Amino acid sequence: MYVVSTFSKALTEIDRAHNIREFSTALVKHERQLRKAERTIFLQKAAAEFYLRFVSSFEENIRAGESWGYATTCNAVSREAGGLMGIQACERMAARVSQLDNARIKQIGIRALSLFASSFARRSSVTECRNGTIRIAEFCRDHSGAFQELHSQNLTMLVSGFSNWPEDAACREATIAIAGEVIRRAARLSELTQQGMTRLVNGFSQWPEEEDLRKATVAIAGELVRRAARLSSFTQKELAKLVNGFSKRPEEAASRQATVAIAVEVLRRADWLTSFTQQDLAILVNGFSKWPEDGHCRQAAVSIAGEIFRRAAQLSDHTRQGLPNLVSAFSKWPEEAACRQAAVALAREVLHCDAARLSSYTQQGLVSLVNGIRKWPEEQAFRQAAVALAREVLYRVAELSHFTQRDLANLVSGFSKWPDEAACRQVAVALAREVLCGAARLSGFSHEGLASLVDGFCKWPEELPSGQVIVAIAGEVLRRANRKERLADFTRQDLASLLNGFGKRPEELASRQAGVAIAGEVLRRVDRDGALSGFTHEELTSLVDGFSMFPGEAECHRALAGTTRELKSHGLQLR
Questions:
Q1: Which of 52, 456, 530, 556 counts the highest number of beta carbons within 10 A?
Q2: Contact predicate 251/215, CB 8 Å
Q3: 263 and 300 in one domain?
Q4: 3 state DSSP class of 326
Q5: Shared-domain flag, residues 212 and 180
Q6: Is 83 left (phi over 0), alpha (psi -120 to 50) or beta?
Q7: Among 351, 368, 395, where does a domain finish?
């Protein structure tokens, strides 16, 4: 009888409320007391009352200093339990906030605005909610001094709201200003709740290129490391979101330390991985893959791989991006049997996809799949998946100009693992033509990207477009060799791969000239003792094979002698 009477009393109080202050007070009080079923009915009733009785008087009540009541009510009814009327009330409030001038929005107060931002973010697909949040972001950007009076919870609400629209300049700039406040409070980050830490890291990750957001994320990562012993209280979703955020800053030691701490916690929960959602597991392993050399990240990834393999029958439930991310992540540990088994199961899921589902993968998803499965070329499932993916890329041949240079290089490198497959050869020809059509884009390829293209196209030497691309890349390498730094920023592997490819076209002037340029760079790396330290056996062998294709070039002859001597000094034999 107590619950029933409480429920009746709650409905009566909101019915009899004379103003928004009385209404919001009753709403907040009873929302916390009611059980789930009664709370849903109560919130939907409150949403209808709010929409019909109070929303239209919002501007008038701002002047009366009653903004807080509107903010707390909107925050309550905009949740899922508020139903359709809660959605409509939230949209109407957002529309009104979006139209406020600076004087009026300042009267609302920054604390109330943080609640509005949090409410509107729940309806991120609605134009009114987007516009309302952007208006709040504009105010916050221009009045960032007000952040000092805010509790950390309000800061997290604002970031959580703004991060739903990362493409908007005002949302980005306001978030940068909040990051500045977080940095200012670096010594007091112990005040952050675990939910607050998660929201900030997740929100800041929407703009990984921003320096202040990087600094704020690093500060929070340091705080999480200090709390490592308390990670057991974090939910699975919170751990996943934190790893996702930290993985956007893989170069930061604090990001790595925080992620390793989370990996240790995931390992502690290894027997309960069945309680993790598919999405959380995918996010975690994708984050751990940013530090593949760390033992804890490796072990956590292996545990997750085992869980993914046990869920093989449910792999169709993964999102379009989730499955490619898993394959890409597991490929960072190709020698781990569990990672290979999970990747095989994922590849078989790709094979089970009909044409309609394959066509639903994004360009990045296709590239991630190809780039991942190439680590196990001997597996039949991966060969079959590669053929299916090659056919899908061929279906999209008219869209190849939309792929980035990195994507094109990864596709060529991936499909080259199965050069005898007709579909892989056909797609390689199409990719070669795309690179040739946009030859000016070669300047946008990284050194590694150029090396991947050459190394890949060499697998089809009989194809004219492949040879033409290699010659074009030789010209690009020559252009870079004429820079002040010459080829000093090319890795040893890049130099070896490029030379090996140019050696397949020794009759071409550009190939010979590029070979000479690489020879000069290799000779510059000879130390005082005449040794070429750092080059692997495979790299040295590729250099020897490459230089030997240009016997008439003095520089290549000298480099050939040096690399041959280095091989022999290690007691290694030429192939």
A1: 456
A2: no
A3: no
A4: helix
A5: no
A6: left
A7: 395
Q: Nearest Cα to 330, choosing from 347, 348, 351, 316?
A: 347
pTM for the full predicted model? 0.88
Classify 416 as helix, strand or coil: coil
State CA 150 to chain mean position distance: 30
Radius of gyration of the chain (CA): 30
Measured CA to CA in angstroms, residue 97 lies from 100, 112, 146 at distances of 5, 12, 19
Tell me the average pLDDT across 496-518: 96
| Residue where the block lists tokens 């973010």 | 121
Q: Convert 512-554 into a string of H (helix), E (strand) and C (coil).
A: HHHHHHHHHHHHHCCCCCCCCCCCCHHHHHHHHHHHCCCCCCH
Cβ(245)–Cβ(204) under 8 Å? yes
CA–CA distance, 360 with 422 (Å, rounded to integer): 24
What does the block give as tokens for 427?
Answer: 């797609």
Q: Provide φ and ψ at 535, rounded to 5°.
A: -75, 135
Residue 568 burial by CB count (10 A; 0-12/13-18/19+): exposed, middle or buried?
A: exposed
Q: Report residue 404 CA to chain centroid gap.
A: 16
User: What digits encode the pLDDT tens for the residues 318-338?
Assistant: 767 788 999 999 999 999 999
Instruction: Of 39-53, 519-533, 555-569, give the lowest mean pLDDT range.
Output: 519-533
Q: Is residue 536 domain-resident? A: no
3-state secondary structure of 494: helix
User: What is the pLDDT, as a whole number, of residue 531?
Assistant: 81
- Do residues 497 and 456 make contact, with C-beta atoms less than 8 angstroms apart? no
Buried b (16+ CB within 10 A) or exposed e, 477-510: bbebbeeeeebeebebbbbbbbbbbbbbbbebeb
Give the domain range for residue 204: 193-268
Tally the domains of the chain. Answer: 3
